[in-house]
């Protein structure tokens, strides 16, 4: 809300955070989001590295302000979900999403693709997939991303984690999961279906849900439902010295609701994703990234995390990304106008 006195000066009244009480890290949440989004656009505009004067952002690896902008998510959206050379059958799309997501590594997808004629559920052969991954492991290749800790699924009885995950994919598809998901009318209902499968805790189930929601199997707003991950909980504990009784989910929703006001309050020019504001999944991720950022920027604020350094150092990847988002978002036409 703005008020004008004597038609000369305009004063903006900002709604307080009450009942939550913020720390100094809170403002850095918004500053980090703006800085990281600036980096995103400077890379697109082919500016030279480094894309920021912030020493922490220059040295360490952080995900984008928008989850869907990350390299792995972009590959999933373009090459796995919406690849025009692949089947658009909901069952086949779900199979591909699960196959990609449980390893979450571009190189593993490409390894399977180069060794198996077609990555389809219709022709799925457990032994063929298992043999390819066993061989890769014997050659000391890493087949899982370090982004998530993927728990083993012992219920299927195999010695190796990847073998059990292949069986899990088959199990999920055979349980008529596609139709169950398509019959839902709330994101939480879809989440409840996914989290019931063995080995998928709440956070991993939520991440898989977001990836499925990129497709046409389901179509929910990314601001409808959120599940905080361990990293986000660390960030929340550093941004707030007192939550005022608000739950972690409510605090993430608070960030969603306050984003425009907070960027204005801090004098930050935040570039949205071609008109798409931050969604709950993005606000959740930003808490995770700020948890890492604060380890260096605010080492005296420990929060609930006992980590004191950022492990991953930024490594320049010269391979360009041609950004493309789920068509239902209506962003691709805007990108092409650049």
Please give the structural blueprint.
Blueprint: E1 2-5, E2 9-12, E3 21-22, H1 25-44, H2 55-59, H3 71-81, H4 90-101, H5 106-115, H6 126-138, H7 161-174, H8 177-182, H9 187-195, H10 202-214, H11 230-239, E4 240-242, H12 248-265, H13 280-297, H14 332-335
Antiparallel strand pairs: 1-2, 3-4
| Global outline | globular
The tally of beta strands, per DSSP, is 4
Backbone structural class: mainly alpha
Largest sheet: 2 strands, antiparallel
* N-to-C order of helices and strands: EEEHHHHHHHHHHHEHHH
Mean pLDDT: 93
Binned, the helix content reads 40-55%
Distance between the termini: 34 Å
* Proportion in β-strands: under 5%
How many helix segments?
Answer: 14
Strand order in space, largest sheet: 1-2
Low-confidence stretches: 1-9
Gyration radius, rounded: 21 Å
